[in-house]
# Entry
Amino acid sequence: MADEPGATRELIPISMLNALAYCPRRFAYEYIQAEMLVNEHVVEGQTLHTSVDAGGRTWLEQGVQERKLYVWSASLGIAGIVDLLEWRDGQVRPIEYKRGKVGRWRNDQVQLCAQALCLEEMFGVSIPEGYLFSFATRRREPVAFDAELRRWTLDVIAEAHRLSSEGRLPPPIEHRAKCAACSLQPLCLPDEVRQLASGAAGVAD
# Structure
């Protein structure tokens, strides 16, 4: 549904798109209900981000690096922080820093692509790729903003607005590997919720 004329659209944090791409229930806990469990992994990530979060600008031989840049898209209703933005040789590249190895679920790629969509709207440029930097490997991994990733990112953004407007907590996903790796598992209790749902369905039958 289109926004009414004059209406102020909610700006969903880009970091929450990462949560949604990983699991809709995680997004609902962290964004809609503002629930987050701080464990050693979260604290470690915050500590590693200290140098980036300080902000500032560094001049390079062929360009400039800007840290902690706030970006937004009024048309998409999203906003967030680019950890590091490089302007080099006439090209713009967003770089997102991650504590561990780049995840296999591609939710980090959605977050990075959303940053690029904001930058393209703000500066009127085309951004073909960005990078995910892993503190664990000390390496950058290129991420191509191809048609498939852009389409998926737009779908995630639309779903974020839909879930936010509904304000409901989605059921646990059927993906036990993701659940096992999720810091919110003690709060979400996916196995217990599934068991209760299964028992309720059995009684209804």
Summary: The mean pLDDT is 87. The first helix runs from residue 14 to 22. The two ends are 37 Å apart (CA to CA). Residues 76 and 158 are 8 Å apart (CA to CA).
